[in-house]
Amino acid sequence: MRLLASQIVRLSALTLVLACGTAACDGSETTTQSPTSGGAGGTGGAGGSTGGTGGAIDPVCGDGILTPPELCDDGNTLIGDGCDNDCSFSCTKGTPQGDAKCDDDDPCNGAETCADTHVCIPGTSQPDGTPCGEAKICKSATCSDISCGDGYLDPGEDCDDANLDPTDGCDACQFPCVVDPDCDNGDLCAGLAVCEVDHTCTYEPAADGTPCPGGACVSGACKLSTCGDGVVEPGEECDDGNIVGGDGCEPTCKSTCLDAATDCPSPLPCNKAACTPQKTCTTEPDPAQDGQDCGVDLQCSAGACIGVGASCGNGVIEPGEDCDFGFENGPGAGCELTCKFSCTKSPDSCADQNACNGVEACNTVVNNGKLGQACSVGSTLPQCASCGSGVCKGGTCAPSSCGDGCVDPSKGESCEPPSSPTCDAACKTKICGNGIRETGEDCDDGNTVNLDGCSSTCRFEQIHRVRYLVLQYASDAYCTNNKLGLAITGTTAQSQLQGAIDEGLYTGYLGVLLQFIGLDDLSGTTDPQLQIGAMNGTPKKLGQPYDGSNDLDFWYFPDPTSLDANKVPLTIVPAQIAAKSLTAGPGTLILNMSFGAGSSSLVVTNVKLAITVGPTSTPLTSFTNLPPGHKLSEQLNPALTSFATAGQPNANGSGKLCGNVTALSLANMPVPEDLTTGGFACSEGYPTTASMLDLFVGGCTVFGVKQISPTQPDQADPAAAPAGAGAPYVLALNAQKTVSTCTDKNGASVPIGACLNAAAYSSFFRLATGRVIAK
How far apart are CA 114 and CA 353, in angstroms? Predict the structure, then answer.
């Protein structure tokens, strides 16, 4: 069992009294019964020392017996605890070598000195950034070389913002600009350059169409002349934003029709080619050809080549006519005003080469029993559909470009619009895990793994360690039931059990980590919906100084058994924050706990938590890849802050945690050895294999004083006993002082396994937490 120093002193004093009586011990340090005082004989005879008649005992360092030439013997072979592994003092106060033996000559962690107890006392660390030598400064209490990106302004540096982002006003520890001309990059399309007060450059883009080398400005960038981009650039007659032929602007960005005689196909007899105002080709009757022969017994009449004396539009198909719908003749009707079909089938004259409006075809149509031929409309493709050389926009095939609202995989695009939270300037999806912190990301450490300082979604992992956890021995208005605490009635038991928890927290042996999952407000002011997950963790010291009561942003290795395959805590409860007040529950949490005989998992059901959120701070940065702090490789946003604490480590400022501790988890928690053997053992006579549940059910009396009152569980786990069926349960010990039987509220026997799963003790803890990093 781990004991506090004060408890060790009390036990040592009692051991001396029991071993020595009052004659052999003189009160000096690490003293035992004289090796030559052999009771009545006093010379090693009957009842005398086992060392022989007056014989000297060979010294064994670490046996707890002070034997010359040993200067000390504290019963172990540790180094630095006042008595080293050769049984010499770790240091001696008042001697020239005393403080010198302690001091490591690093000015950043202060001058270490020797205490009266022969233990080295740490010095006072200097603030980070304090000069400690030529081209050196203090970083995390260590004298280190200065470097760009360490967060401290060193000689020759304009700035140092603790990151390597060249776009935030500090590039390679130099200001990118001081005056406006510094921002001029020679880009005509970037426009007017301005050096802002934060030393970043901003630009007022030039107007679209402004000439630039080889093209024209579009959205602030020089775009090479590309037919179909919708911008009329040098060398182009037109640009209608598509690459469809015959629509007035050809795929070569030349007008379809400027001179009908040369630009348009030959018209049918009796007609002439013409250009429309939209510069497309059309035909119109040629009055100059009226009366001229256009075939055997045919002559021109108002653009129609018909038989002599025939009349197009009278509803009668006469020589030279393909059709005649009478007064229903007209453009596209199937029979034109010239009594010719509106289209031909071979070759098919309907296709317009525009894939976006579908495939047109020349089909037979019927009008009042009369046959004609007209173009059918194709099925229009969706907006942004691929059309071979581009994408469909407004029913026409147009070249695609980043920023046009269409994602074109053929151009390597994967998102729109550019420069948005999830899409970069080149229309490529911002990818968490590429090692580059992009807009909308808190960090990016080059992977998508949880619990390594940066989450799988590149969000900051707000994780706190419980650094203050105190058993309560009463109830209050929030935690109205506390059967577990009320059972611990003796001050000795309270001191021992709490002392074991305190030591476990200080040394890091107990590592209860709470993760704030889905936390949107890192300041902890308001967040209507989040979750709190519990996991176990151990400090990842890597040779660095560690203090479990002061471990801000220290590294902790999460226990894989408390996580699922995605490194998410197995037990999670709902939570909410309002006005800096966090409440959570109900739900189940598994907490790492120790009462002095090894840590165990304490399963607490029906949990509820209330705690005040503390102030925010900027998370620490590690420049040495050692704890504490976030590594530079995590690319943590330097402007990010989050709440560093919750609750205060004192009776008035701490939070409250209530819940029902399952009987099964108490049955799996061993009893401290001192309560089963030795002078402080419970008089009830528990075996060394006893559990804490055995003690709570049977009670514990030490030196005639009741320390733990016999107590039965008062709650039931709703998952194991719906609606509390059968509760309260009554547990009983067997002759070996082990809980072995159980009855329900009606006196009926319940299988012990099912009973331990269902039965629980109400409990009440006070707690405070501090921000740490899972690694």
Answer: 93
Q: What is the pLDDT of residues 18-33, one digit of tens each?
A: 333 333 333 333 433 3
Question: Interior CA angle at 482 toward 477 and 485, to 5°?
Answer: 125
Consecutive H or E run containing 6: helix 5-20
SS3 44: coil
User: And the tokens for 82?
Assistant: 């006042």
Q: Which residues of 253-277 are buried (b: 16+ CB within 10 A; e: fewer)?
A: bebbbeebeebbeebebbbbbbbee
Phi, psi of 369 (to 5 degrees): 80, 0
pLDDT at site 362? 96
CA distance 419 to 398: 23
DSSP letter string over 449-490? Answer: -SSSSS-TTS----EEEEEEEEE-SS--SSS---HHHHHB--
Task: Locate 105 and state its tokens.
Answer: 């000559």
Cα(8)–Cα(22) distance, integer angstroms: 21
Q: Can you tell me the mean pLDDT for 92-105?
A: 77
Write the DSSP assignment of 109-125 as a string of letters. G---EE-TTS-EEP-PP
Angle, CA 693 vertex, CA 692 and CA 695 arms, to 5°: 65
Give SS3 for 341: strand
| Pairing state between β 630-631 and 621-622 | parallel
Packing angle, helices 491-507 and 5-20, rounded to 10? 130
Q: What is the mean pLDDT of residues 748-760?
A: 93
For 7, other C-beta atoms within 10 Å of its C-beta total 19
Return the minimum-mean-pLDDT range out of 52-61, 249-258, 507-516, 742-751. Answer: 52-61
Identify the residue whose tokens are 């072979």: 77
Rounded distance, CA 537 to CA 463, Å? 11
Where do the H-state alpha helices sit in 245-352?
Answer: 260-263
Residue 512: count of CB within 10 angstroms of its CB: 25
